[in-house]
Every structure is written in C-alpha cells, then in structure tokens.
Specification:
The structure is a homotrimer. With about 325 residues, chain A is an alpha/beta fold. The first copy, chain A, has 13 helices and 11 strands. In chain A, helix 8 links the parallel strand 7 and strand 8. Chains in contact: A-B, A-C, B-C.
Chain lengths: ~325, ~325, ~325
Amino acid sequence: MKHFTSVTDVPTPMGLIQKASAIKNDPFTNTELGKNKVMGLVFFNASLRTRMSTARAAYNLGMKVITLNVTADSWQLEFEDGVRMDAGTAEHIKEAVPVLCAYCDIIGVRSFPGLVNQKEDYAERVIHAFKDFGNCPIVNLESTTLHPLQSLTDMMTIEEYKQNACPKVVISWAPHIKPLPQAVANSFLQWSSHMDFDLTLTHPKGMELSEEFTAGVHIEQDQSKALEGADFVYVKNWSSFNNYGKIGEAPEWELTKDKLQMTNHAKLMHCLPVRRNVVISDDALNSEHSIVVSQAENRLYAAQAVLTELLNFSV
Amino acid sequence: MKHFTSVTDVPTPMGLIQKASAIKNDPFTNTELGKNKVMGLVFFNASLRTRMSTARAAYNLGMKVITLNVTADSWQLEFEDGVRMDAGTAEHIKEAVPVLCAYCDIIGVRSFPGLVNQKEDYAERVIHAFKDFGNCPIVNLESTTLHPLQSLTDMMTIEEYKQNACPKVVISWAPHIKPLPQAVANSFLQWSSHMDFDLTLTHPKGMELSEEFTAGVHIEQDQSKALEGADFVYVKNWSSFNNYGKIGEAPEWELTKDKLQMTNHAKLMHCLPVRRNVVISDDALNSEHSIVVSQAENRLYAAQAVLTELLNFSV
Amino acid sequence: MKHFTSVTDVPTPMGLIQKASAIKNDPFTNTELGKNKVMGLVFFNASLRTRMSTARAAYNLGMKVITLNVTADSWQLEFEDGVRMDAGTAEHIKEAVPVLCAYCDIIGVRSFPGLVNQKEDYAERVIHAFKDFGNCPIVNLESTTLHPLQSLTDMMTIEEYKQNACPKVVISWAPHIKPLPQAVANSFLQWSSHMDFDLTLTHPKGMELSEEFTAGVHIEQDQSKALEGADFVYVKNWSSFNNYGKIGEAPEWELTKDKLQMTNHAKLMHCLPVRRNVVISDDALNSEHSIVVSQAENRLYAAQAVLTELLNFSV
C-alpha cells in the first residue's frame, strides 16, 4: 500500500481490517518499525479524534510526530495552477508539499470541503496535490469527499460486534444545524461494498448522496421500515449533494431510543462529534445500544494498521 | 494515587514533596517508567509554564505527549446535562473524555473559571466531568478553583529554601488590572495545612477568600504587620470571592523592596506570570530576595513526581 | 559554539557547512547525542519550514521537542525595561526566558521585525534578551535582521551544486506585495564573506540594504548585467532599509525564465515561501533551473549540524 487516501488504495480491505483488530489485541509488537521516522499531520481544519488517534498510532510504532495547523502555524496555501499570487495565499502547494515530504516520512492531511461548489469539492484537489507533488505516502485524515480512516474503523467495529455472519447494517441520515460534508457516508458506502453486510441507506427525500457511491445500494426512504431488524444503526448527518451544501430540514429524523426499539437490539454507531438531542437523543446515546466510544477507540488501531502498512511498503 | 486534582487526592503530601525534591537531584532515574505511555495535555486556556514543564516531566519519564488546545485545535465542548446542542458546542464531554482516555494514559486538563457565577465555578464541573466520564488518571493543570501542581511546587520550594524548622510564611494579596482566579491562593492554603508553617494571610478588606479554605488560617489585614519577621512572602493577586469576580482596587498593596526590608530577609515567591510594577516592583523582583525563577523551575520536578506516582499506581 | 544567533557565533563557518553536508549523507549517526534533551521552539511568528525542519533535526539527534506559539498558546511578553505592565503584556522576558531554559536544553526563537522602527528592529532585542536572560544555547529561527539557519542552508546548497571553484552568485531583489524583512539578504551577505564566491548584489535604486552588510559587496543596479554569466541566482524580496519598511514598486524585477537565459545555466534559489508570478514566474520555478525544493530540504541538515554543535559544546 503506497498511499491511504481511499479504499481504492487498499489491496485487500478485509486484510487491513483484520490487521487493525490484531493490533488492538497487541498494540506494542512493532515499536521499532517507525524508528527514525516522522509522521507529519497537516490540518487545514479542526480535529480531535483524528489528531490524537493518529499521533498515538504513530507513537505506538516508534515514530515521531510533527503537527502543522496550516493557517494558525504558517500561512494560506495556493492550489490553483498558474495564478498570480498577489492576494491571500503566500505559498504554492507545488513548493509546500515536496518540502513537507523532505522533513516527514508519511504525511497525513485533513481538508474539508467548502460545500459551495460541488464540482470543486468532488475534484479532491488537496489530496491530489499531495499525491502529485509529494514523494512520500499520503494518509487522508478526511478530505472533501472521503474519510477512509473513519470507514476502516467502522468496518472493524462492525466485525468486532457482529453477532451473525451477515448483519443488517442501516446508515440513517440525521438532522444537524450546520451543513456538513458527505465524506463519512460516502466512504462508508465505498467500504461496505467489500463487506458481507446487508446494507440499507435511509434518508429524507432530497438528501440523496452521489450516485458514484450509492450505485447498487439498497435505499429505503421510510426510516422506520429501514430500522426494522437492524443489527447496526449508523447515524450521520450530511448536507444535500444535489442541492449542494444545503441543510436538510427534517428534525423528526433524529435517532431516539424509541426508534432503536424497532431494531434487533441494534448497536448504535456514530463517528463523533455528535450533537446530543439534535442528531441522536440522550436516551439513545446513554443506552446499552451505544458503542460510539468503543468505535472512536478503534480509530487508534485503524490508524496504526494503516501506518504499519505504509511503513512496511516504504521500507 | 489515582488522580491528582487536589491535595485530597494525595495520600501523603509531604511524601510527594520529598519525591519531587529527590527527582530534582536525579531527574533521569526513571526514563523507562512511561515507555509506551502517552500524556494528553488538554488546554481550555493559555499556558506557558504548565504546558512546558508538564511536557518535559513526561519526557523525562519516557512518555510521549499529545497537546490539545481545545478551541483552536478542535471545537467547543458541552458540559451541561440534557441540553439540546443546537448552538455553539459541537461535542459533549460525555463523549470527548472517554475518547481522550482511549488515546492517552494520563490526561492533564486546564480550565479557568468564568469569574461570573461563583456557584458554577466552585462546582468544578470540568474536573469532575473528566474524573466521572474518563477511566484514566486526571491531572489538574489549574481548574476553576484549585492549582495543586503549583502548590506542590510552592511547598517543595519552601522546604528547599527554609532556614529554620518552622518558617513564617506570608501570603500577601497584590493588585492586578484584570480579574484573576482564586485558585493559586486556595490551593496554597489547602496544602499549607499539611506543612510545618507559621502561616499568615494578608489582604485588603473585601478580598477575603472562601471560608472553605481560610478556616483556621491566621489572617492579618495590616500588610506591614503581616510582613514583620516573614521568612517567605508569597505574592498573589486574586479577584473578590464575596463580590464575585470583582477586581480589588488597592494599588498600595504592590509588593516592593521597601516592604521586604520589614521581613526576616524573606524569600519572595510568585507563581508567574507576574506583571512587573503592578503586582511586584522591579526593585523587589530584581533583588536577592526573589526566588521566582527557581520556584518556576521546580514546576518540572513537581509534575514529574506526580506523573511518577500516577504511572506507578496504574501499572 | 555556544549559541547560533549569527555567523559571528560560528568559529568556522566552512566547517559547519561541511558538517551539514556530512549529516545529509548519513543523518542517523548521532541518534543518542540528544538523549534526555529537549529542544524548545518558541514562535512569535508563523513558520512552516523552520518549524518542521528544526523539529525533525532535533528528532534525528534523539531530542524531544516542545513548541510554543507565544501568542496563541500563552500570552504577550514584555521586552521593555522598567515599564509598569498595566496593558497588553502579561509576563516579562526577564522571567519567561530563564523559565524556558529551565525546561529546555536548547531554545530556538523566531521573532520578525515590526518594519516600522529601523533602530528598534536593528537592535535585535528579542535575540539579545534570550541570550542575556537565559542560560541555555539560543538558536535564531529568524530574528528581526538575521536568518542564519537559512544562510547556512544556502551556503551548503551552493557548495553542493557548484560546478567550479569560484561560482558567480547573484542575489537579486524581487517584487512583493507586502513589506518583508531584510533578514535573509543580510545574513546571506554576512555568510558569503566566508565563501569563495564571486558575489553580485542587484536591486532597484532605493532598495539598498544596510551598509553594515553591503560593505565590500559588488553592487550592480542593472539586473540584466548582474545576471550575465551567473552560476547561481538567489532571488529575494526585501522592503526598503533607508525608507524603512516601504515596499519597492518594481514589478519588472520579477525573475523569469527569459532572464535565466542570460545566465550560465544558473541554478535558481529562493528561501521560500515564494509568491509565484509575483516574485518568480511559473516558467522559471517549473524549469530545470530551480533548486528551491532541494534548498529547502537542506534546512533540515543545516539545523541538525547546528544542534549537533550546540549539544557537543554543552556536554
């Protein structure tokens, strides 16, 4: 594995999931693998779990870590080709990325979408720039349209908690007060195609995701019907793809404990952060259904599996 | 010792002070104790000494460090129970803390008071939330009402510099241009009760501290009388407890070299940062009385003693 | 070498350049030299290369790193002597620096000029304060008038790429939209005096540097003439020294590929960040002339050579 920017970079997704589970059982078997190696964490946006779990994963492998909050620590970077840089941006990505790769052995990068221009966001130019202009492995810490570290975690968590060979997994849209990216849902669908799931996607009319990701996915617009017999309910808000970046106004889609009663004692998942009593109700999050913290803990092992593969490849 | 959030967490305060002094003499005896362990430093507020001395203490024990500036690096956290999170806070402490504990072996947290609502500040909800919702040792890096790492340092420094078995220690209020917490003074009083001090508290009328901390403490409202024969003068501003959060208007309480002449060649202490010529005069800070830099240096050994105890307990 | 704040701190500049080149060939020969040592990186201003390359250099030597963004992480520091600190600054450098030295073994500091008051900027008070009030080695990470880590890199890069014993090196002023410091150019001239260069400085009328640095340097105000036969073209903007801090209005001084045709297949250098199509044109930066990324990579080895010398001296 040369990069980890999408499931398409992963030769055998199930193999990587199993690697992550094995690391969870014994996180300190490879503390010399990253000796004399540095992980660079480049953030264009805020982060809590990703920032800390990826750093911890690097430490568990004996790597050092350098974190760069791009705007706060340095200056704005230019991504457009051929522009006269006489405004807000002080350095072009064509210089910044190879320089970062000169100081770091692996670069992780987070860059959220603007949610204004669909075409621009779905072009994934930041991730492409890092791959194109750098010569070191790139890890996607959530890009404009994908969040593969989250999805690897999610798949690993479902494998860990599933009670039967082919569980029913429902990904259910939820309300939110701000326009959020589609990245977590997109990646979840992408990774699910490699799993033995019975997958159902449910969302209000108007909140369809890109067909690039929903092709072949079972969609049920009645949330109650979708939840029937579910073994896992993955709750997530996203803003509209077709009416790009618009918030979905459907507060009745909040996931509550009542709704979980319809399921097969479903495990409740969410990538966090979650706005309580907007996205998911207190009674659901506080119930025995919720595995959101265990799921977040698995971010560490997913990241460690990814870094292990990248280090092994580059050695 | 399971946590370090107050002197009440410490089985034998004097034992911890002696441990800190021993570490100062030989800081690198335990460089393997923290192997494969990570210290998480969570800052809701600015910090210089605490940030750097605690990181250095962790390094001296072989730990790795991850620092999180909550607002700048991630997003605002919610502490209220049961609220509908449709405003400024994006993640509830009920999720954030267990997740932090999943990635870190010890968590240090700094969170200043608002100084608007006495009852709310003195409820210490941030520290309680970290203890309640996490499952890892919590270190208080200055909370709304306490600063035990500073006090451990202060006690250690007095032990180091004292010339007689029972020195006279005076804690003297000083003026300031901004409303400051009572935390340093509260903790100093709390820890002093475990020491062989002759302690005197002096402050202008109206600047009384909470009786929770002053019960049994000798208070002398005449600063000159208080300073007579003092071996140590600990200078510190705090805002009013009773007229909660109000600044005390008493510029004549600035500690000067003239006032130090009244003492028994007293050592001058302050937790820093100190506003020169507002809180303490240049001539006092530049004099042979001042041990404020040595005192600050001891922050490192105090933190290292605390982390050593927490690591030993959790092993 | 006790400090690294200027070329005047370096006993044998050429020896340090050779050390940096040797480290580039084998960066991991001294991974135990910095054991139990901490590098403190103190930033009053933004940084990308310096921040990351110096951290990486410290890691390669086995050091730990603590980074402090002064304003964001802590509070504003006071440098004036004798002032009543009743305004924006909360801590005096007289306390802050010795405290930083108590927690760190080497301190690097970056502090840009205000570019308003020439006398104040050229007094280099921040660097002097760190040397005067601290008791640990100080590394200049770019001060108000000097950037010796950049110049050590630049000299090392010229040594690496030169095709003949005494190359013609041209330092050519370039346009910019903001007032920039003179530090990179000043240091370049300072270090050049220790090299076997045929050095030419070229800039528009009015953009003269301080005679302190240009004494004895060949100045050619016609850019075309200056570039004739050049083996290296170092491009850099600076604001006016005499009309202090004013931007030079001369867009025709942008370095383009056409201008490089006049040279002897010159290598194109710049310290980065560079505003494309303002300072240097795309066609020049994208051409085979450009070595700006290799030059930036050498920042790591230059920093590692400096830290090696400082650690060896202090042992």
